Amino acid sequence: MTTSTTSEPPTAVPLLDLQALVVAVRRRRRLWCLMAVLGMLIGAAVAVLLPPRPSAVAKVLVVHQDDQPNDTGTLIRTDVELLGTTRIAGKALRSLGSPEEPEDFMRDYRGTGLTNNLLQIDVTGDSDTQAVARAKALADAFVADHVRRMRETAQAEAKALLDQRDRMRDELAQVNKAIGDRSPDTDPKASASIETLFARRAELNSRIADFDERAAEARTGTPKLIAGTQIVDGPRAVGHSLPKAAGTNAAIGLVLGLVLGLVLAAVGTVVADRPVLRREIAVNLGASVIAELPRAPRRWAEPWQRRRTRTARERLTTTLARTVRGSAEPVSLLELGCARTTSAIALDVARVLAAQGPVVVVDGLPGPQLATGRRKPGEPSVVSGEQAAAVPQQTRRLGVGSVAPGTAWTDLHHLGGRTVLVVRAGHGNAAWLHTVARQLADQGIAVIGVVLVDPDPRDPTDGTLWDGPHTAPRGPHERPARQNRGGISHAVEAVGEGRSRTERPSMPAARAPYSDQEVR
């Protein structure tokens, strides 16, 4: 018979799991909600504590000699830059009688081109009156400077035309003199020369008349430009509403804070690499999620929430007690990020088991969680790890320990040969979860399953492993090869270094018998 051994190819791990990222960011809603509220408060505080300076605004209609309908705003941008020069600022300061330097005054105002011919001047001051006065002085200075430049341009153009006309007149005088010096004769050559002089005289007369007309037009167009350039909206103070400014700044701060909080939460999630999905936690620990326990309700929680959490706690205790009774060797509860919750669960399980026989809780937690605590009469006995050897063999033992960083791994075997990991979702990173699985496998401790504390209620993944043994990776408790119907054996390998077990892809989640959470 020919046999073949196949192994499932490793599952491709995405560079960035968006599903896990969304769940992790949602779980850190405290951070981004706090950042949003903080941004809103800062925005409102800025509006109250740092109100804007009093300001005034004026609008000036600027008419250019070279105005064109298809102008892209080049001329008005030039006017804006001219407004921000020391010449305009100096003239405005002189009209105000202010000793302030033009360079300092230029920082208190700005120009904005609203259209191709409309310029807006915004000015700030120590008071509304000063701001209005500054705006008027700037507008007047700009209009006066613009009118002066238009006049100088027109005068320069007219002078150039008149100078050209005068040169033409001088040449015309020479032509007339040449015509007068010629005596009439019948010589054909002389007659042609006289005709040329007459033609030249006619051309000069025409050009002189043209230059006279152009010079007159240049002078006539200047008054139109001067009259068109004027202040169309007089300087006025800009009103400031504190409630409106506070509301606007608060809204802006809220949005910026929310965005910053989401970015920080996302970056922190990627950097920390703390699994929160059932699938990721099960894969990294090499054990299925057998139960879940919701987060303890807060003091101000509704009564129905407290009742639901209490019911879930009781059903979890019943489930774990049944698991401990069915085990032939001691069982331990090892916590990661939830020592207080694990201690309470261990005491509840011990109380249920005490009804059928003597039970001792072996406290292996690093802190004084159980051994030194006060207990009511009739409570199960709690001994420290050093006293575990003195416990009689016929007494059922329930170990409680920790797999947090700094754990003495060789001491965990004395708490029990089988264990249930009680893990808080999002507490340990992926590297440490895998370390926990490897260390438990090295110690020969079989992992029954994982109790997930504070799971995400909207986590769509299933924490049940599809293949592989129910122990940690690289452990000695590997599942033997199984035979198919045709007799071909398929070896199911445990998860090794760099390889993770796959999750059951299509198994629907069942409701937990102890809570409204889902059993994985």
UniProtKB/TrEMBL annotation:
Stored InterPro entries: Bact_polysacc_biosynth/exp, LPS_length_determ_N
Coiled coil feature spans: 144-178
Pfam assignment, any one: Wzz
Region described as Disordered: spans on this chain: 457-520
Keyword set, alphabetical order: Cell membrane, Coiled coil, Membrane, Transmembrane, Transmembrane helix
Family note: Belongs to the CpsC/CapA family.
Protein's UniProt name: Polysaccharide biosynthesis protein
